[in-house]
Every structure is written in C-alpha cells, then in structure tokens.
Amino acid sequence: MQLFLCTLLTLLFWSAGIFGLFNFSAVVAEVSAIGLPYARWTAAATIALQLGGLLLAAYYLKRA
After folding, report:
1. pTM, whole model, 2 decimals?
2. Displacement of CA 16 from its chain's centroid (Å)
3. Model pLDDT for residues 7-17, shown as the tens digit of each residue
C-alpha cells in the first residue's frame, strides 16, 4: 500500500522529469517564455530536481 501511495504521490514528478529528458528544447522554450534567466541551466536544474526528488522518495521508501 505504501508503494502505491508513494507512486501516486510522485506521478506528476515522474511524468514531468521524463518529459523534460526527452523534450529538453521544449522545457527550455517554456522557461524562456516565462522570462527566467539562464533558460538552459534553469531547465536542467528543474529536471534534475524533479528526478532527484524521485530518487530520494524511492530511497526513503526502501529504508522504511
């Protein structure tokens, strides 16, 4: 049950992180449209944060 809830909770981060990996130029365009500085670095950091958070959640689930 805990695995299901963790997966459900992180589903948006899974989809956004994987989308960002395969469509990096679209994420950079979105960041540029918002007007954030250093669009490529900001997009890369956002994707890394999304996928890194998933790894932390998986690590926590494994230790629990």
Report:
1. 0.80
2. 5
3. 787 888 888 89
